[in-house]
Amino acid sequence: MAFLGELLTSVADRGRALIGFERFIGNRARPIDRLCEDLLSGRGEASGMALAQAVLDAWEQLDKPGRLAFFNLLKERFGPDQAGLDAAIEAYRENPNAAAISALHLAAEPRRQELLRRLNLAPEGTHVLVRMREALFEAIAAEPELKAIDDDFRHLFGSWFNRGFLVLRRIDWRSPANVLEKIIRYEAVHEIQGWDDLRRRLEPADRRCFAFFHPQLVDEPLIFVEVALTTEIPRSIGELLEPERTVLPAQEATTAVFYSISNCQEGLRGISFGNFLIKQVAEDLKRELPGLDTFVTLSPVPGLARWLSAAVAEGGEVALTNEERSELARPAVEAISLDDPAKARRDKLLGQMTAEYMLRARTTSGRVIDPVARFHLGNGARLERINVGGNLSARGLRESHGVMVNYRYDLDDIETNHEAFATRNTVVASSSVRKLLRPAAG
């Protein structure tokens, strides 16, 4: 990859010489809009790479208002060719054959999609475009109509980062230091407390970590999953991350626990990798360790506390007694120190409410509320168990009153479960979870 990068850079340098690179520097530099038009005008491969590099270099020097102006430029001047689109529409109306449909499709494509494709020719072009989309998210917050630009990014990234281009690599304690540092930085579920903590997650025989990489983003993980090999389904994150735990020989493991999945590139938000990652890791682990027969997650429930606050309010969507409302309104950090009978009552009620949240609660558009649930259920998992007290960290208490859940990936049922969720919005859950549900109101 290093050789290929150097080769592309030398080609771009040659292109600069061919087109007279002095025109791009100093006070005589052409504005970025002119560079974009030149890039689209159609030059040779070498000069095209040089122009693409010049556009990206100019973009990286823009401040926040300049980048906002650039995105507006893409919206206003690099949309579809209106005259060509009108002509294609008229041609289709007169003769709606396959050729007219194809011509209409081509005419409807915004010019900025081809611009982005050509920018991707530059050395490190993919990396810069991913960062460009990060900046676009911020711009959309200020000007929502720029979402049309993001639609183009999503369309192109969906092709450029499809599964066929991704490479699965195991990350272990011998991996390059720059990759290990990124695992620490990008961990988004259970913070890694320095190098010793990372070593405990990577080096022991009963721990695994896998990541997807893309050939154009060398040593930049796109998404990674941390796995614990155990003999049973865990109920809490503490038992997996305990520093003094006894290491299990890998060949004795019967259960693979996906306890942390982290997306690494904000600019690739909404481009799904996780479904491929979990399935391939499960298959690879099964080949390595034939004794594995259970594949589960230990997952957070990030929307539970917010939903619960609304549900326990007067007039909320769940029928509760005043005593129950008072119990659930108690701060989670305070509830940890309740005496045993009071804690048992609250834990039972919290388990019931979590089942209500996971199985019945919906957004105004009818979707399952919890984003982690949507991810795993959409991938074909089954909601296996609710674990009250599963995460007593400050974050766990704040987001979910300490509740975690297990999703089970039964390789024989994944497709059936996925279809049930995708077509009927059905949450496939174990009988133990369904038994927690209180009778429906009314």
Q: Gist?
A:
Helices cover 52% and strands 10% of the residues. By secondary structure, it is an alpha+beta fold. Strand 4, helix 13 and strand 5 (294-297) form a beta-alpha-beta unit.
Please supply descriptive tags for the structure shown above.
alpha+beta; Butyryl-CoA Dehydrogenase, subunit A, domain 3; Aminopeptidase; 5-stranded mixed β-sheet; 8 strands; globular; disordered N terminus
Q: What would you note in describing this structure?
A:
With 442 residues, this protein is an alpha+beta fold. The chain has three domains: 2-160, Malonyl-CoA decarboxylase, oligemerization domain (Butyryl-CoA Dehydrogenase, subunit A, domain 3); 164-297, Aminopeptidase (3-Layer(aba) Sandwich), CATH 3.40.630; 300-434, Malonyl-CoA decarboxylase, catalytic domain (Aminopeptidase, 3-Layer(aba) Sandwich), CATH 3.40.630. Helix content is 52%, strand content 10%. A five-stranded mixed beta sheet has the order 1-2-3-4-5, sandwiched between helices. A three-stranded antiparallel beta sheet has the order 6-8-7. Helix 13 links the parallel strand 4 (255-263) and strand 5 (294-297). It is globular. The termini are far apart. Mean pLDDT is 89; it is low at 1-28.
Q: Please identify the structural class as seen in this structure.
A: alpha+beta
Widest sheet: strand ordering: 1-2-3-4-5
Task: Look at the structure and give the mean pLDDT.
Answer: 89
In CATH, the topology of the largest domain is named: Butyryl-CoA Dehydrogenase, subunit A, domain 3
The biggest beta sheet is recorded as: 5 strands, mixed
Number of helices: 21
Shape: globular
What's the architecture of the largest domain, going by CATH?
Answer: Up-down Bundle
> What share of residues is helical?
40-55%
**What's the total number of strands?**
8
By oligomeric state, this entry counts as single chain
Order of helices and strands: HHHHHHHHHEHHEEHEHEEHHHHHEHEHH
Radius of gyration: 26 Å
Show unreliable segments.
1-28
